Amino acid sequence: MSESEKRNAKQNQKKKALSKEGKADGQSIQLVALQLLASIGTDPDDPEGNLDLKVTIAVAAKVAASPGHPNINQSQLSGMGLRLVLPEGTERKMCKGYERVNVPAAPAFDALKTNVKYIYTTELPKWAQVAFKGTEKLNAIQSIVFNAAFGRSQNLLICAPTGAGKTNIAVLCILRLIGQHMDAAGGLGKDFKVIYMAPMKALVAEVAEKFGQRLGPLGVVVAELTGDMNLSKKELESVHVIVTVPEKWDVMTRNSAAGGGLSDDGMQKLVQLIIIDEVHLLNDDRGAVIETVVARSLRYQETSGQPCRLVALSATLPNYADVADFLRVEGENLFYFDSSYRPIPLDTSFLGITETNRMKQMAKLTELTYDVVVEQVRSGHQVMVFVHSRGDTFKTAQAMSQIAQEHNDAGKFDMRSHPQYGHWLKEVQKSRNRQVAMLYEIGMGMHHAGMLRADRSLTEKMFLAGVIPVLCCTATLAWGVNLPARSVVIKGTSIFDSSVGGYKDLGILDVQQIFGRAGRPGFDTKGHATLITSHDKLNNYLKLLLHQMPIESKFLENMANSLNAEI
Length: 567
Fold this sequence. Notes:
It is a single chain. Helices cover 39% and strands 16% of the residues. By secondary structure, it is an alpha/beta fold. The protein folds into 3 domains: 1-59; 116-338 and 556-566, P-loop containing nucleotide triphosphate hydrolases (Rossmann fold, 3-Layer(aba) Sandwich), CATH 3.40.50.300; 346-545, Rossmann fold, CATH 3.40.50.300. The chain has an 8-stranded parallel sheet with strand order 1-10-4-9-8-5-7-6, with helices on both faces. An 8-stranded mixed sheet has the order 2-3-11-18-15-12-14-13, sandwiched between helices. α1 packs antiparallel against α2, α4 (140-150) runs parallel beside α5 and α12 crosses α13 (390-406). The radius of gyration is 26 Å and the shape is globular. The relative contact order is 0.11.
């Protein structure tokens, strides 16, 4: 037998061993895969070791489950710490002036194969069913987590895709606490507080409104607390659920003078549940604040003996076990769900522009944006194009309209045949913003925070009615109103940051939120998201969005400030 045949036989033997290991119970599969890669070594035709090895492994839905972490629902291997591992079916090719990477949607989660027992809302106590009015049953993720969220009071970490219904898990945790403080007559005292930390002020208002509507009938008082919305001492004493941002809660608990006259200790001893939304912000510049808040809470529990439950909600991330250790979450209370659990399958495309000349790069950026947009519009879908300055919303729409005329595609954006076109034309003509009227006539819209509320609302309604196929907007829209869009496009990833006086990369949290706008539940059965960036940033965004970039601590950079606050 030749050396080549021996090597092939050895590889086949190891593949069979790996498959057998996966079929047995799915344990330690990542370790087995790494051992396989290490033992195979390099290929003679690929001396640098860049061999793209594809191994098909028959495994159960809980691929990476282990005795220590039984609730890991992962259908694909991850490549954290290694070279970039692209999902099966990914196409990567060089085109003129850019590189294109098309990542197909993950295979849809199959509830039958994993024997998920759905929880119907009628199984909840009668008083708790009010919070789920209009909902027949919890979805798969919520049903799997139900016992841990509503049946126990231990710390929780939930890693799941955007739009998977993590907010309902937070509601279940709050309902458990409410049940513990509800008297026989159904009344609630003021002897407990819930802190819900959202990453953005725009989300704070949205969450506070939703919680108020759902929990209000139970007598729960919900209030938002941000730099724009302060609470008096009396209001702080009467409120049950405080929705805030990490920075504000940090200030509230770091000194005894804060809190409208309430002492640090007086506030903290009433807090029995802290919910941290988007905890993967730990990897952001703001991550140090979350670490400080968590450390302060854990320290207070140790010194005072007052229990406080920590519940963290996150997008999918590779080193979930590290984050769980930091939050003191036991293995059985760590729940990980990969992208196959996303309610609407999402195809993603990443375009990396290879042009280095600034002017040529900007021209290519607009050209590629138009190519993606016109392809979707041809198919009868609406598109949201996200840009990074208010002025660029109008400029981008104008530029795409000009390209459409040059390519004889203007008719594809013409919506005059739409039955509601005349009605909305009259509404647009009432607007003082001439740009809105101008864009409406060419089948486009614009949306940014600098517009009057009436004009923003008008644009949202027209897009919702389907008379505008293309909407150019800033990232703020991704955090607000839920608009239907089969496709979203991020035009460039460089944004100006006035605090540093220069440009920085678009944050992963914004990218995930924007991608979450594609194919929203209740509107579409499928979504498509495209990110256009420079070629040198392409692999970085691929790693971040394919969840192969581990979360790392940012505390060291801000340690001096945090220590001073505690002294």
